[in-house]
Write a structure and sequence with these properties.
Blueprint: H1 7-18, E1 23-27, E2 30-34, E3 40-46, E4 48-49, E5 57-61, E6 64-68, E7 82-83, E8 90-95, E9 98-103, E10 108-114, E11 116-117, E12 124-128, E13 134-138, E14 143-147, E15 151-156, E16 159-164, E17 167-172, E18 177-183, E19 185-186, E20 193-198, E21 201-206, E22 211-217, E23 219-224, E24 227-232, E25 235-240, E26 245-251, E27 253-254, E28 262-266, E29 269-273, E30 279-285, E31 287-288, E32 295-300, E33 303-308, E34 313-316
Length: 326
């Protein structure tokens, strides 16, 4: 008797087999792409290449810009002068100095006609028209709500940061101001909390606007992987969503958690810690970036290096030849 695979499981298998995380590297002055094992997947034929986002990467060859998939196939779409990565199924494009949007099929959903535009999140995006009006548009390109704000962030947890007259608050997806513009500064919601600053000190509110972590930090980040980066007395550490210290502030530098790891500086070198504070990637690197997917791009001995969560270096750039030497 044959066993039937549930449709949801089958779909997950199909998606995982069709999509793969690739990472840009430079080989002989050209951009190529490797997989998480450091194996070459796409040959070095691109003059420039960004990271993949939602299955596509923006690349350039000579004077031509376009999006490729993980097999190197170019997305058939309209021409543009500049573009951003895909976000929530849409990518911002610029043509003749005006902003528009394409979808993942390459279709021009919003013709370039706006002065500025944000990123799509939860199906919505702010755009700024030539007549000075600000609109919230949907993925069909329809102007659904006019906004009286100078700035708007991404929607997270159903709320988006807005600013008016130098103060920050939050609107819902209908454009209603649900948390008043009363803060000197605020960050986007993440995992149910948002950073808000008054009198130069950061605290955290929930989606109802209730202050759940008091204003006390001179610098702090967003809640990520259940932890918040905070700085006290010039040292970085981490608290949980209740404001309790989880990792003592002992680092001269730290970034927020990404994929369960945070970049920290010990002495003059950088490595990564896990959520218990254990150093899982040895501090051997001069500087670098946070994890994107399974790899982090770091610099060691002036060479770009990709490292995985186990601390294994899966790829390193070839050293430049010194003049007069082979």
């Amino acid at each position: 008797m044959k066993r039937l695979i549930p449709a949801v499981v089958l779909l997950a298998l199909i998606i995982s087999s069709c999509s793969r995380e690739l990472y840009p590297v430079t080989v002989n002055g050209k951009v190529a792409y490797i997989d998480r094992e450091g194996e070459p997947v796409l040959q070095p034929v691109y003059d420039k290449g960004d990271n993949f986002s939602e299955g596509f990467a923006l690349v350039s060859v000579a004077d031509s810009l376009g999006f490729i998939d993980s097999d190197g196939r170019m997305l058939e779409t309209v021409s543009f002068d500049m573009a951003s990565s895909f976000s929530d199924g849409m990518a911002l494009i610029i043509r003749d100095g005006r902003v528009g949007y394409i979808n993942r099929k390459g279709e021009e959903v919003v013709s370039p006609r706006y002065l500025r535009g944000g990123s799509f999140s939860q199906g919505l995006c702010p755009v700024y028209a030539e007549d000075g009006r600000t609109w919230l548009i949907n993925r069909k390109g329809e102007e659904i709500i006019e906004l009286p704000y100078e700035y708007m962030g991404d929607f997270n947890d159903g709320l988006a940061l807005v600013s008016k007259d130098g103060k920050s608050g939050f609107i819902d997806r209908k454009g209603a101001l649900v948390i008043p513009c009363a803060y000197e500064f605020a960050g986007d919601f993440s995992e149910g909390l948002a950073l808000v600053v008054n009198s130069g000190l950061g605290g955290y509110i929930d989606t109802k606007g209730k202050l759940v972590i008091p204003h006390r930090y001179s610098y702090s980040g967003s809640l990520s992987d259940g932890l918040i980066l905070v700085v006290e007395n010039g040292r970085a550490g981490f608290i949980d969503k209740n404001g309790e210290i989880v990792i003592e502030p002992v680092y001269s530098f730290a970034s927020g958690f990404s994929n369960g790891l945070a970049r920290v500086q010990l002495g003059d070198k950088m490595g990564f810690i896990d959520k218990t504070g254990e150093l899982t990637v040895e501090a051997l690197y001069d500087y670098g970036e946070d994890f994107k997917g399974d790899l982090a791009l770091m610099v060691k001995d002036n060479l770009l290096t990709y490292v995985n969560a186990d601390g294994e270096e899966v790829w390193q750039a070839e050293p430049l030849l010194t003049a007069g030497k082979e």
